[in-house]
Amino acid sequence: MRRSLSLALATTAVAATLIPGTTAAAKPDTVRWGACPEDVASPGLQCSTLEVPLDYRDPDGRQIEISVSRLASKDPSQRRGVLLTNPGGPGAGGLDYPAILAKSGLPKKVLDSYDVIGFDPRGVGRSSPVTCDLTPEQQARGNFPPYAHTPGDVAREAGNARTVAEQCAGSRTGWMLPHTTTANTARDMDRIRTALGEPKLSYLGASYGSYLGAVYTTLFPERSDRIVLDSNLGPGGYDVSAMRLFARGLEDRFPDFAAYAAKHPEYGLGTTPKQVTAKFYELVQRLDAKPAQGVDGTMFRGLTFEYLYSDAMIPLLAKSWQALDTDSALPPGPPAGNLEKLMSGRFAVVCGDSRWPGTVRDYQRNVAVDRLKYPMLGGTTANIGPCAYWPDERVEPPVRITDRGPSNVLLAQNERDPGTPLAGARELRRALGDRARMVTADQGGHGVYPFGPNTCANDTVTSFLTTGQRPRQDLACAAQPGK
Predict the structure, then answer these.
(1) pLDDT tens profile 369-404
(2) Is 67 an annotated catalytic residue?
(3) Catalytic: 179?
(4) For the chain, does the N or the C end have fewer beta carbons within 10 angstroms?
């Protein structure tokens, strides 16, 4: 159940001028499309593999394999190029994402305009996956640490954090860790572009994919066509600030659930938003003292956070609260997937992308602050994790997102997104400057396009992808009641 605390380049020669220590590499082979693996097979979806350098400073050295997919345009007369996609994470694969987008309502004119490209990022899925050899108990603990009520809780969690970091470094894939970064995944994207024979690529990435896209278009601005960043992290990606921002995200989003539960007294959670909020803290306190059905207070906080990612999950969240309140059977939740692979891939990127505070005292201070500012989740998201003890080796510093490059980026953002709060999106918007415009939808949940119901936001993204037209200035889309 603790899984619910998570549920997250020009040519290579040009890259050499942007990235210290890199050297030019030979052009990759042409992609040869074939059948997809059975578990991702979908009508029209084709798959292939591509070798890329483990270390772009040594492009002719050790290679790793990247798995790639394509949903080809069915109208060659309308085809503009390729639309590379990423569903988020890190740790999640994207090989089946083109098919998911098509089934979820990606407009026909977008599907006609592009070959939609998916891929498993390096270290994930079928792309040379990393492992931390996580035990079932470690997997059950989830990606985020337990809620810390006291400085002593932080100190006790430090041992678990150090153990996971040492397992990751000492695993059979530990040699990949210094190179399993967002910057290198962006370089892999450009190798995919080159292998496809495309002069530029367009991009649609959500959640962590927003940061991946921002890094790509920063490193390779002249190879970027139309770039859509959905549900946006701040310009530092999943750094310590973004992790702490999850707590604000829950506070931003929770009023939507409180209003829903108050309008449905059959759940017995309260008849006003204030009463529903009080029920949250009552259940937390009760479950901390005596877990029910294997759920303690930390797991309950995480379950609430995860289920608020989607409006469709809100009724399930209300039923889950009701079950815990009345000590009745919990309704089944969404499938967890392979937690070892998901968590290992996530740790590799999140911990490897940037430096994290390295002392217990740092996290004790952060927890003390965030418990007061964001009491629902702050003691969890500010607590210590494996990144505090990650190996010191860093191939390069994090990519700094700037406003240098063509004005061809569109950000799409929900106002009340628990996973990537509006505050972080605004920071990314400022960092990109005149390169970007942002469309903000007055709705909650994680993910705008094409899954969300706001037609104003969806139409704005579709227009940009198919015509290149963006709003002249940032656009606010009003709520659409009943949708």
Answers:
(1) 999 999 999 999 999 999 999 998 888 999 999 999
(2) no
(3) no
(4) C
